[in-house]
Amino acid sequence: MTSTFNNIVYETSDGIATITLNRPDKMNTFSIDTMLEFVAAIDATDADDDVRVVIITGAGNRAFCAGADLSQGAATFDYASQGRDRERLMVNGIYRDWGGWMSLRLFNSLKPIIAAVNGAAAGIGATLQTAMDIRLASTTAKYAFPFTRRGIVPEAGSTWFLPHIVGLPTALEWCFTGRQISAVEARDRGLVRSLHEPDDLMPAAREIAREIVDNTSPISVALTRQLLWRLAGAAHPMAAHMADSRAVHFRGPTADTKEGIASFLEKRKPHFPGKVSDGLPDIFPSWVEPEFH
């Protein structure tokens, strides 16, 4: 199935949703309209039980996403000059960063997200990936976190996400210098899982997605994603123990768990009946979603 957007392409097939940033003539740069459509597409994947995994890529062979659309020139980051679209994200006189708004939506996704980076990934094209779960790249890909070279700072919550992935020293170097990062360096430093020839990139991403779709419980995957991301900043492993104890307590008696054990013992593929839309058990009873202030 294909849904209609102007700046992205949204397709679903066999349990996999593919979101393609579709402005190849502008190297798939993000405009305000693209950002709104991107979040709407993630909302759609969460609401659709037939979608088990999300793959995000870029149209064409030049860029995954070359950053923000700079067509407004020097006014690109002068949010007060951008009118009503920007006003919707103003809180207490501060304009919220659109990239962070998107990253936080990815953080709360109920489905695992794979980035298939098919070319240049700079600015928001690099930082937004840090909120995704698995990143594969083409051998032609290149990265940059060029914010200090533009007189601004890293955005999209990347100063939280990036050090968790590559470590603080690498994050500091990349963000201080703003230099170009090769696909090989991105892989060697841990930002990218693996490199693939351009024609092999999407098949490799789909192979990982297929492994998840065919063998795992949707509810268990959603809970595991919550556990790993929410606990990344926990002060003590007791926080993990309390959350995973609740998860096992609630999941243990379910039909999914019975099917998982039966399929293992019978040496067959599992068929998990549980649906994410049925709701997730509350394994973080004291969790309060932080508010911007």
TrEMBL record:
Enzyme class of the recorded protein, top EC level: lyase
Gene Ontology MF terms in the entry: enoyl-CoA hydratase activity
Annotated GO biological process: fatty acid beta-oxidation
DNA-binding is among the record's keywords: no
Keyword DNA damage: no
Enzyme Commission number(s): 4.2.1.17
InterPro entries: ClpP/crotonase-like_dom_sf, Enoyl-CoA_hydra/iso, Enoyl-CoA_hydra_C
Domain of life, per lineage: Bacteria
SUPFAM superfamilies: ClpP/crotonase (SSF52096)
Keywords, comma-separated and alphabetical: Lyase, Plasmid
Pfam families recorded: ECH_1
Similarity annotation: Belongs to the enoyl-CoA hydratase/isomerase family.
Official protein name in the record: Enoyl-CoA hydratase
Source species: Sphingomonas paeninsulae
Lineage, broadest ranks: Bacteria, Pseudomonadati, Pseudomonadota, Alphaproteobacteria, Sphingomonadales
